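Input.
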Amino acid sequence: MRSPVLPLTWHLARSSGRRGLHSRLLAAGAAAVGSFLLLLMIAATLGAGTRADHTTWRTPDAVPAKEATAVQATTTTYVRHEPVTVVNLARLPGRGPAPAPPGLRDFPEPGQVYVSPALADLLHDLPPGRLAGRFPEVRSYGTVGAAGLASPDELVAVVGRAPGDAAVSPAAGKQNHYDEHLTERAPIAGFSATEASVFTGTDQGTVLLGVVLLVMPVVVLASAAGRLGAARREQRLAALRLAGATPRQILAMTAVEAAAVGATGALAGALAHTALLPALARLPYGVGAWYTDRLWVGLPWLAAVVAAVTALITVSAVTTLRRVATSPLGVAQQADPRRTRVLRLLLFVAVLLYIWATTDGSGQLKPRQLAALLVLFYGAFWLLGPWVVDRLGRIVGRHAKRPATLLAARRLSDDPRGAWRTVSGLVLAGFVAGFFSVSTLGLEGPRHEGQVAVITANAADARHTAAEARTLLREAGVTATVAVTREDDYDSLLGGVDGVTAQVSGGQEQIDTAVTALTPLGSGRYPITQEYVSAPDDTVTARLATVSTATLVLSFLVAAASAGLTAAANVLDRRRVYGLLRLAGTPLEVLDRARIRETVIPLTVLAGGTTAMGAFGAMQLDKAAGTTVDASGAVQLVVCVAVGALAVLAAIAGSRPLLRKVTAGPAQTAD
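Output.
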């Protein structure tokens, strides 16, 4: 016998009118946004790992001297505050053929210089005295291809050297305490190293932190999409249940409808993500923009995200039908308010105690453990939220003095889960805001702005180099004060290393010119600046700042979308109630104020709590890392919370015309 589920589902969908169409369009739109954002997060995570993999070849992987076919010395110089990675390569005589590095067709011969496209443009734009003078003079530059670059904006040069050249000598690879993988030298037999560049090595971990904090608001949005039209669906299916439909048929009808809507929206979001890849690739992160193909997640990930969003929406829709299956008459009569139990509070406290015991302040947790604890924390708040909303509704209802407040309190206590879903996005985003606003690390070490330093083998060489430095700077037109540093002199850029420092006047252009002028004095090493010394700390801080800003913006946008979506759905679901209230003489303004207070009351309490917890967690992280808290974080936190609250209220206010429309004919709403 043919199952009646599909024909009946199609018939009910067609006969649902504009109300049903509006709900399905909103649900599909939410599914599309959720799918798009999930794919964006996956693409950023995988793309950051791919970019790091394309920089590992620059880290020389030492092999025994007998097996080496070449010598590689990688270093970093700066121009206009931007890092330029320079890979010096020399083929060893009498050895086997040396393989070509990634991005090049052949191993570079002595005197050949290959540069990335972005560096080629910079060499063309800047005077030779600012940058080109740091490399061997050539008629034309070769090009480093995409296979050897992390980003089209990356500045990379590959220079062919003779085996006896100072740039590949042991002195060029001598390590100092501030090098931290910026300068390394080793005999090599290929380019199969696994250690990423200091400028890309932390990118994926930082992106993953933002993804963990952002994924829950996206899940909230998708869950809200699955519950659109829940009240009307319950009424319709309860009638079918009373007419003889089995619980299995009711659940199957709901699952089919929700899956169709969710799959359509999720597929639209996946297609939009694919179509927008060229535009998304232009968004800068870390070393610059992206190669488009490195943001392509592949068909398996696309299918997995579409399936996950569809499943989430379907499960969310089906879970609303428990009362239909067990008590269809109560649903049809709109009886049995949805109370919550104190067990939610007990579970929340238990989870917090577990998290507190696990994070004992040692700061030794692995990223996966931190991610798991964050997910556990989100889940705990998801349990607690409806219970708090229920209690708030009861308390406010006892002390309400205005009709709008009384109506809001009644809605909070009658349907705490529905009210929680309206504010849950911003409540969870508040945790993100509190965490990132306060976790701005103050990794401030000694700063020696304007200094350019040259490392020498000993103090005697430093005195001779100082005289040459004065001559070279004068010929280059740079005004600077040159001094000799010693091993016990820590109040300089070199910090206790023998060498020469020049305090340059005139700004960044003069500093770049000084670096170029002093390059011949470095015994194969480039002169260093403040950016070189602080590169590891500044890189981590910059990545965290970028990810925190993006996460905050997306969190609040998703929260506002969730709130607006749920508010519009509530208007459609409560059309009959609003119609009866209008028939009873309730002004439209009172109904609208009740809707807003229904959001503001739990939002103030719950979002304030999660924001405080996020700030506390960030302070514990800073304490474990031994860093200070940026004073501007408090200001940023206040601004984020204020803007987020206004965005949610604006989204709710956006459904005001819908409220006016559904109550325009009150006689028709009492169906």
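Residues 328-336, 666-671 have pLDDT under 50 and may be disordered.
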